[in-house]
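Re: Re: token formats

Sure, here are both.
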Amino acid sequence: MALGGNPVFNGKNFRTAARGNTPAGQGATALAGQSAMSTTQMEDLYNQPSAGPSQTGRMTFDDVIVKTVLSIGVVLVGAAVPAFLLPGLVMPLMIVGMVGGLVLGLVNAFKREPVPALILAYAFLQGLFVGGLTMVLEAQFPNIALQALVGTLTVFAITLALFKSGKVRATPKAMKIFMIAILGYAAFSLVNLGLMLFGVSEDPWGLRTGIEIAGIPLGVIIGIFAIGLAAFSLVIDFTSISDGVRNGAPQKYSWTAAFGLTVTLIWLYVEFIRLIAILRGSD
């Protein structure tokens, strides 16, 4: 509707240019001269290089990559605070990062237009949380951070390769299944957190390690399931980015794409480090 009413898209400019400004009653010679001049102008325009997406203010893959790298860089800066600058305040910083990151994550998710400062603030707060969690688990399980990072990058690379090959897509049916699965996982996580906060479960991971199925900790099964959800969330992100670039979305929405990828990558890393901790703790 908006594009249809815009003269840039409805062709009015081109029709006006074609009619020209020649007054009625002028002879054929004047019309022919104007036609020749218009043809020359058209040839000049045709010979000029086409404007790329960046020149027309549209989103590009390069924009998304740059802004995603920037966001992840801010996450790493935030993670360095509890890891190296203030190691004595790991737990308080982790709690601040978790709560603040949750609040800003919801704010960014529901804003109609992206605000880069809020997105980077979210990345920094999540860095505090991830850095604190990593330090706590690294003290118990040496090299767990490296293992989780390798797992995260591996899943990201495989998912991207499968998406580019066309073998995985965020179809409407798959999206419905994903929404049901993510709601179920969220409900389990909330119940598990409540049991831990109120002292019902004394296990370090709550029901994840307090229950076993066929000798396998429930946390391992849930963890693999959650990693699968995060991987499909990457597929959704890739699909949205491709659609945005193809449809000529405004350049500012590359921040929205970067935010989505940052959220998913942090989620994927947290699931990996938790799964590895449960596996190594059960040895």
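Second one below.
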Amino acid sequence: MTALLDIDQLRTFVAIAETGSFTRAADVVHKTQSAVSMQMKRLEERIGKPIFERDGRASRLTEEGERLLDYARRIVRLNAEAMSSVAGPSLSGGVRLGVPDDYAERYLPEIMARFARSHPDVELTVQCEPTIELVELIDRGDLDLAIVTHDAANRPSEVIRRERMLWVASSRHAVHREEPLPLALTKPISRERECPWRRAALPRLEEVGKAYRVLYTSRNSAALSAAVLAGLAVSVFPESAIRPGMRVLGTTDGFPALPSFDIGLLRNPHETSDLADALAMHIVQGLDNLADAEAAE
């Protein structure tokens, strides 16, 4: 008979993998360190293979542990979604979500589908605006939640995803070789309210002495993608936004490395609601890749 995996053990296993420590994981799952160790011993007995091995004074995942981790994350998330849908309170009413249009295109389909399955009677209103304007809408109480580009210097948020920022050009053109370099970037609202991607990219071109001109600007990501795909300009996109027909430009092409950036979640500071909390859970579960990103670094 096939052994059944224990959800609580898997939740603890994921916490250890994501915190890198039995001690820190114990705080996350609200158990003693000895209880955490016992859970992992029983999980290894259940699957019949070791999932941790000693690495000096630390523990790291075995090959079997790495393979189990992906399944464990999915099982834990699906369990939370099932409990929310079946055993949770029946919620109704409306909830307001703000999101930049480029994030909406990539992330919203899955989030909305999962949220609708769990809460079919809830009306979800989505407003697409740049991060800077979403922060203002949140502060005014005009939105319940907002997915934003995290900017600790401006408005800290709950970081839920990390991505690489990349130079991109058309794979069918050689626009990246033109001098000065034509760029397609987000249109700044003002000098003080500039997109953090633009703010990070331009100084790096200046540091390597690459002349440029901003030839196309827009607040719409689809318009910037069109300029890139048409071979008219180079732009800066997150890794998840790369489309067929685009190529990534690196140091061998003469382009300086760009920093990673964080995606955050903002909540209405004036009031909370069960609906907003439920939607926030789906957003966090849908976007979370922090453990993978940190492992890659």
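The domain at 7-87 is CATH 1.10.10.10 (Arc Repressor Mutant, subunit A). The longest helix spans residues 63-87.
- S.
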